[in-house]
Amino acid sequence: SDVTLEEGKRKMRYNILGQHSMDINGQRIREQDLAHPNRRGWVILLYLILHKAPVDQLSMAAELWPDESEKSARANIRQAIYRLHSDLAVYHDAKVIDVKSGMLELLDDVHIVTDAEEMESLYLKAKSTATSDEKAAILKKAFELYQGRLFELGELDMGSWLIPYTTHYNQVFIDITRELLSMLGHSRDYHRVIEYASRALSLEPGSQDAYYWISIAAEATGNSMMKDRYDQMAREELAEEEYQKVQHLLEIRTHPTE
Question: pLDDT digit string (tens) for 178-232?
């Protein structure tokens, strides 16, 4: 079950990579599927989870909705939280956000985990795992959690505060991809290299490691059309310096003694 009683706390999962959703009692709730989508409520919850601390609602409003008066901001925040709790109440009876003296915080009786935190946690676990098979399995699990950029559906409306978090989790995914493709490539599992590299590039078309390894795998499996296609994609997606770096690494691999 996605919600468990752990030390007296209810546990739910907020999926914030790609299109946001919530997993509660085995059911997935997508904001865009609700009868009356409530973007502000989901954004407030995201803001609290990423900041990992109580926040002043007017400071948050100034960052997220700078054009609103203090009075309007307070009323809109209160309404958004009420609607969020109403939407979630269909699936469980615990509230998630508390409003006290102008401060917002996550309630103690609910433990909310995110796919982003789990992805990073798995990556750190993989880095400290000695056994190759176990390490590859953990990296694959972490890779599967990345469904796109942080809060993809609302990213453009959020202002600059989200950028450091987006950049951080994007880098974690790129690091996971690098480690996984390197392991698969060095064990010559080229069909898996192609599978994971192509998926990585569909999510993050700027991944230099994915272009490097898919070129090697396409060459090794005799798939010249694939190699040409991804070379063209690399030319379009990478900066000239990045593209030349990938080409240089491929050249070194092809002619290591020159």
Answer: 999 999 999 999 999 999 999 999 999 999 999 999 999 999 999 999 999 999 9
Q: Pick from 174, 176, 240: which is nearest to 207 by CA?
A: 174
Give the model's confidence band at 8: pLDDT under 50 very low, under 70 low, under 90 confident, else very high: low
Residue-wise pLDDT for 66-93, tens only, equals 999 999 999 999 999 999 998 888 777 7
Tokens of 221: 């499996």
| Closest C-alpha to 178, from 248, 246, 252 | 246
**Is the model's pLDDT at 1 over the cut of 50?**
no
Which amino acid, residue 52?
K
Compute CA distances 229 → 137, 162, 200, 211, 241, whole Å.
Answer: 29, 33, 15, 11, 19
Got the DSSP string for 109-137? TEEEEEHHHHHHHHHHHHHT---HHHHHH
pTM recorded for the entire structure = 0.90
- Using left for φ > 0, alpha for ψ between -120 and 50, and beta otherwise, residue 151 falls in left
Q: What's the CA gap between 245 and 237, in Å, rounded?
A: 14
